[in-house]
Structures are given as structure tokens and as C-alpha cells.
């Protein structure tokens, strides 16, 4: 909020000439507030009660003149207000549009004209609320100041009786104000979170269905709805505090004056002065306090919160540096895989002594996950580290949990316990945009939409030029397919492609994405072995880490390490190690063996089961 305070102060200082004019017209506007009680008191005491009807009328005529001057002042006040508010709006719009467009200029950002439209709309909200705030605060200061001066002129004791409760009301309001700002902000954030979460769920409904995450996503969106409702209720409760401050500051002075009237008269205060004091309170102070409390508690809070968020949005931060997508540098991966896999259930590849440099690409810690309260745990306190350059094949019987592990790594599922970090960033609570920069998951059912081949490939890398797209197709093995379809501009439809062709397109798209972690969940199951090998090699050579949920032994053989779902606990190791350590792996390798010849050294030992 410091930014809001500083900017507001700056605006006021920069426009001090316009503010001085505004103050001058405000004095004229508050003339009736200054004179109403006093002139009424004179009209009563010196005129009507003294039997001088004409004198009474003359005082009231004076009041009528003051009211006319006040009305003229009000007209001028609105004109001067524009001189303060409009330049503020223009400054803010320029600043935000510039920062949005500059932000869009960073590689990896989209030029977002809707962001500009959204921001300019919010600037209008700031302008209106700022104008309203200026009016009510100024109105209160002048009206209250005028009324207190008038009360002092009538009788200092009356001024003291009114000032006490007024001050108490202001203290109640001022004390509650920070909490009101906080809750209003929570409400705005809750609304945005809900919109973001529902929007992301709708946009990604195909992936949600593919990952069988429907129930979870509905739960997540439902939690956002509940959070927004709670925030609404809290803001409504804060309205009670506004009413309390109005009651104390606006109504109790009236009650005090009425109760104290006999005593005041005994003290020598005239009946006209008591009536004048009541006029000051009921037509000057109370309405001004009412406008202040509702203006600050409503539009004022919106001003603070909206401006605060706009200022946040205006800070242009370049997105993280993007990885070169095509033709990855011809350097060996920085990190050699560990020579020996850690024992089952222990971190692999990133723990102390394993040779990992820097932050691991993937770090899973204490991961427990089950579908539903009574279901068996698919993963139970599971740890895993993957280094940059690592290539892990995940294998296991049907239903063992391979896709679940991939979805957890991708942040599509959230664990019951434990954490998933991708290059140090926790997936819990990460926005879809952040997740998209960190990882790409290619499911078995490849997602292709009706558009040009180029549009399909650019889905995760909108700025990629044609040369980049063609190079990526070439590396992944999609060159012949692109030629057959008629080039990048060829229009494709999901129904017009075979399952394998869709997988090639999805793989090329993933290859082009900025994410450093690639998760292939049986993403090549419809490809012939040669194309599958080419796809896996392309991803293995790409900077980052690769996880392949494998359905052929060839995938496991190409990987640096293999994770096998063996009974209750996944076991990790090299192919050779697992042949001796995992009965499940031996069994799987035995079946796979029939499909693809396995080098002699990889043949399962005719061993009795090992621990
Ligand atoms: N959406 C879901 N709701 C409830 N249970 C689920 C859901 N998705 C998977 N499961 C269960 O979780 C377990 C692990 O499933 P998962 O899909 O991760 O296995 P998998 O090893 O990938 O299997 P496959 O090789 O057949 O794809 C299975 O018992 C499965 O029935």
C-alpha cells in the first residue's frame, strides 16, 4: 500500500495549484454550513422570539444568500475537481499501457491487447473513486470545520459537547479502516483467483479429462468459490463497523444536545443557540460524516485496492530466460547420472554425494497420494530427485501409478502430503502460466485441434517462426508427415489424422515449448519403434530433464535410469541393476523381450526372487 500512498501524495503535490483553487471554491461552498446555525439562532433570538418578525426574516434572508453562494461554489468545485482528477487518469493510463506493451515485447510474452483494455477499464475505476474520495474527504473537512466554527461562535460549551462524540466516531472508523482495506483486498483477490482457476480449468478441459483429474479440478474450483463467499461475508460484516462509527459520531451529538438542552439554557445558552447547534449537527456534521464513512468505506477502499493492484501490474518483469528450443547446444548434460541408484524409497539423483550440480530439475519429497479417502495410496512418502540432463523411464504393471506420478510431477494433481518442486519452484499454488514454463506433459491421447499445422505446433511457443517449426519437426521425425500434409499452412483436423500422426504433432509441440521438464506419458505408444526412438532421442538431447512413461523395453534401455512400480514401493536403478533387484522389472522385461531383442547382458538372470 506504500505505493498507493506515495502516488496519491505525489498527485496532490503535483496538482497543488488546482487543489488550492478547489479549496477556495470549497470555502464558498461551505458558507451555508458555516452560517446556517448562527443565522438561524440570530433569527430566533433577535427576531421571532423578541417579537421582531422583520429582523427574523432579515437574518433568514442572509441565510438564503449564503445558500445561493454555496450552490455557486459547488458548481465551481466540480469544475476544479476535473483539473486534479483528469491529469491523474491520463498519467496512470500512459504508465500502464506503456508497461503492458513493453512487457509484451519480452521474448516469451504475448502481446496482450485485452490486458491493456482491462487495465484502462481499471484506470477509469481509479479515476472515479479518486474523484469521489477527494470530494467526500474535502467535503467533510470543510463542512465539519465550518460547523465547529459556527458552534464556537454560538457557544463554546455547545461546540465541546458536539466535538467529543464526533471525535469518538472518527476514531472507531479510523481504527477499523486498515482491516476494511485488508478484507476488501482479500475479496478482490478471491474473485480473481476464482476467475483464474475456473478459466484455466475450462481452457484445459481436454487435459483434465486426459489426466482423469475432473474430480480434483472441480474440488479446486469449488474451494475458490467458497473462499470468495467467505471474503464477501467478511466485507459485509465490516459494514457494521461503519454503521457504529456513524451512530457514535453522527447521531449521538444530536442526542447529547437534546438531553443537555435544559442544562444549557440554565447556563445562559439561548434557545436560538440550541436550535442553531442542532441545525449545525443535523444538516452539516452528520451528513458530512455519513458521506465520509460511506465514501471512504466504499469507493475509497476500491480506490486503494484497485490502484495497488494496478501498480503491481505496471511493474514490468521480464519472464525467465527461455531455453533455445531447436538445435539444443551440443554440450554434454552438466550432470552425470548417479553410478548407483539409491535404495528404494530414497532420493535418487539429487541427494548429497550423487553428483548433482545446482538445483535439481525435479524434487519430490514425502509424496503421498490417493484417489479418495478410502482408496489405497498410489504413492506413499515417495522421494525422487531428477537432475538436469536426466532421462528417467517409468515402468510398471497397468494401474500401478505411472500416470499418477506423471500428473503429480506436472502439478496436475496435488499430493495429500509432500512437495513437488520443479527447478526449485513448488507446483502447489503455481499458476497455469508458471507451470507451463516449467514442464510439459504429453498424454497418450494427443491433443490436436482444427487449425493449420503451424498453429498446432505453436500452441506452447506462439512466437516460433517457420524455420524453428520445420527444424523441430525434423528433429522429432515429423518432417515426412508435414510434407504429406502439405506443409505448415495445411489445415488439419483431429479426425483426419491417425493416432500416431497426432502423437508426432503433440511431441513436436512439446519439443517447442519453453519447459525444461518433459513428461511423455505413453505419448509415443502409437508410433513405430523407429519413430518412437527418434522422438525419445530428440527429447533426451534437449536441455532439461525427461521422464518417459514407457510401454516398450526399448524406452527403458534408452533411459539413463528406470523407475519401476514394484509392489508397494517404486524402485529406481539402471536397467541392469533392476534386472537383479526387481522381480517385477524382470517379469516386465521378460514380456517385452518377445517384442524387441534385448542384448544378452540385459537378459533376466534365471534367479530366484531377490529381496
Ligand atoms: N481418476 C481416478 N479416480 C480414481 N482412481 C483412479 C483415477 N485414476 C487412476 N486411478 C487409480 O489409481 C491407480 C493408478 O492409476 P494410474 O493411471 O496412475 O496407473 P498407470 O500405471 O498409469 O496405469 P496404465 O499403465 O494402465 O495407464 C489405479 O489403481 C487406478 O485405478
Automatic annotation (TrEMBL):
Residues 26-287 form the ABC transmembrane type-1 domain. SMART domains: AAA. SUPFAM superfamilies: ABC transporter transmembrane region, P-loop containing nucleoside triphosphate hydrolases. It is found in: Cell membrane. The chain crosses the membrane at residues 22-41, 53-72, 130-151, 157-177, 243-265. GO terms for molecular function: ATP binding. The keyword Acyltransferase does not apply. Residues 362-591 form the ABC transporter domain. It is a multi-pass membrane protein. The keyword Signal does not apply. Pfam families: ABC_tran. Keywords: ATP-binding, Membrane, Nucleotide-binding, Transmembrane, Transmembrane helix. It comes from the Bacteria. This is ATP-binding cassette domain-containing protein.
Amino acid at each position: 500500500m506504500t505505493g498507493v500512498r506515495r502516488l496519491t501524495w505525489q498527485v496532490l503535490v503535483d496538482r497543488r495549484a488546482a487543489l488550492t483553487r478547489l479549496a477556495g471554491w470549497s470555502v464558498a461552498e461551505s458558507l451555508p454550513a458555516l452560517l446556517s446555525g448562527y443565522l438561524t439562532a440570530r433569527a430566533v433570538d433577535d427576531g421571532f422570539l423578541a417579537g421582531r418578525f422583520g429582523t427574523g426574516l432579515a437574518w433568514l434572508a442572509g441565510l438564503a444568500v449564503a445558500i445561493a453562494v454555496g450552490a455557486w461554489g459547488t458548481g465551481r468545485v466540480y469544475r476544479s475537481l476535473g483539473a486534479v482528477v483528469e491529469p491523474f487518469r491520463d498519467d496512470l493510463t500512459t504508465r500502464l499501457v506503456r508497461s503492458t506493451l513493453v512487457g509484451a515485447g519480452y521474448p516469451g510474452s504475448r502481446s496482450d491487447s485485452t490486458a491493456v483494455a482491462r487495465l484502462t477499464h481499471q484506470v477509469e475505476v481509479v479515476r472515479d473513486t479518486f474523484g469521489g474520495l477527494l470530494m467526500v474527504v474535502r467535503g467533510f473537512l470543510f463542512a465539519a470545520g465550518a460547523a465547529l466554527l459556527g458552534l464556537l461562535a454560538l457557544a463554546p460549551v455547545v461546540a465541546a459537547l458536539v466535538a467529543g462524540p464526533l471525535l469518538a466516531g472518527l476514531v472507531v472508523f479510523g481504527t477499523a479502516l486498515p482491516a476494511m482495506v485488508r478484507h476488501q483486498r482479500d475479496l478482490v483477490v478471491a474473485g480473481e483467483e476464482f476467475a483464474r482457476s475456473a478459466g484455466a480449468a475450462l481452457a484445459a478441459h481436454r487435459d483434465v479429462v486426459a489426466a482423469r483429474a475432473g474430480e480434483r479440478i472441480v474440488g479446486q474450483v469449488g474451494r475458490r468459490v467458497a473462499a470468495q463467499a467467505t471474503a464477501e461475508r467478511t466485507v459485509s460484516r465490516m459494514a457494521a463497523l461503519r454503521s457504529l462509527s456513524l451512530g457514535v459520531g453522527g447521531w449521538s451529538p444530536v442526542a447529547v444536545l437534546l438531553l443537555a438542552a435544559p442544562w444549557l439554557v440554565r447556563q445562559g445558552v439561548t434557545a436560538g443557540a440550541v436550535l442553531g447547534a442542532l441545525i449545525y449537527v443535523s444538516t452539516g456534521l452528520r451528513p458530512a460524516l455519513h458521506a465520509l464513512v460511506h465514501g471512504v468505506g466504499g469507493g475509497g477502499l476500491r480506490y486503494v485496492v484497485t490502484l495497488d493492484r494496478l501498480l503491481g501490474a505496471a511493474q514490468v518483469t521480464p519472464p525467465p530466460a527461455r531455453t533455445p528450443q531447436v538445435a539444443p547446444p551440443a554440450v554434454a548434460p552438466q550432470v552425470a547420472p548417479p553410478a548407483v541408484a539409491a535404495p528404494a524409497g530414497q532420493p535418487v539423483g539429487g541427494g548429497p554425494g550423487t553428483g548433482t550440480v545446482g538445483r535439481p530439475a525435479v524434487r519430490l519429497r514425502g509424496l503421498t497420494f490417493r484417489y479418495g479417502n478410502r482408496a489405497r495410496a498410489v504413492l506413499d512418502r515417495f522421494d525422487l530427485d531428477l537432475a538436469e540432463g536426466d532421462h528417467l523411464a517409468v515402468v510398471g504393471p497397468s494401474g500401478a501409478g505411472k500416470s499418477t506420478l506423471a500428473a503429480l510431477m506436472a502439478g496436475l494433481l496435488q499430493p495429500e502430503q509432500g512437495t513437488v518442486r520443479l527447478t526449485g519452484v513448488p507446483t502447489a499454488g503455481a499458476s497455469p502460466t508458471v507451470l507451463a514454463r516449467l514442464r510439459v506433459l504429453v498424454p497418450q491421447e494427443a491433443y490436436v485441434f482444427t487449425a493449420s499445422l503451424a498453429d498446432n505446433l505453436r500452441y506452447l511457443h506462439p512466437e516460433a517462426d517457420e524455420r524453428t517449426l520445420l527444424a523441430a519437426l525434423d528433429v522429432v521425425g515429423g518432417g515426412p508427415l508435414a510434407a504429406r500434409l502439405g506443409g505448415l499452412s495445411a489445415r488439419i483436423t483431429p479426425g483426419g489424422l491417425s493416432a500416431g500422426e497426432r502423437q508426432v504433432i503433440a511431441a513436436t509441440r512439446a519439443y517447442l515449448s519453453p519447459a525444461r521438464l518433459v513428461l511423455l506419458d505413453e505419448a509415443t505408444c502409437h508410433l513405430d519403434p523407429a519413430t518412437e526412438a527418434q522422438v525419445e532421442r530428440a527429447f533426451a538431447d534437449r536441455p532439461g530433464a525427461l521422464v518417459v512413461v514407457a510401454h516398450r523395453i526399448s524406452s527403458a534401455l534408452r533411459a539413463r535410469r528406470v523407475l519401476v512400480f514394484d509392489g508397494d514401493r517404486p524402485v529406481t536403478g539402471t536397467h541392469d541393476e533392476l534386472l537383479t533387484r526387481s522381480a517385477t522389472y524382470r517379469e516386465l522385461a521378460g514380456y517385452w523381450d518377445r517384442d524387441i531383442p534385448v542384448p544378452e547382458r540385459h537378459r533376466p538372470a534365471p534367479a530366484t526372487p531377490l529381496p
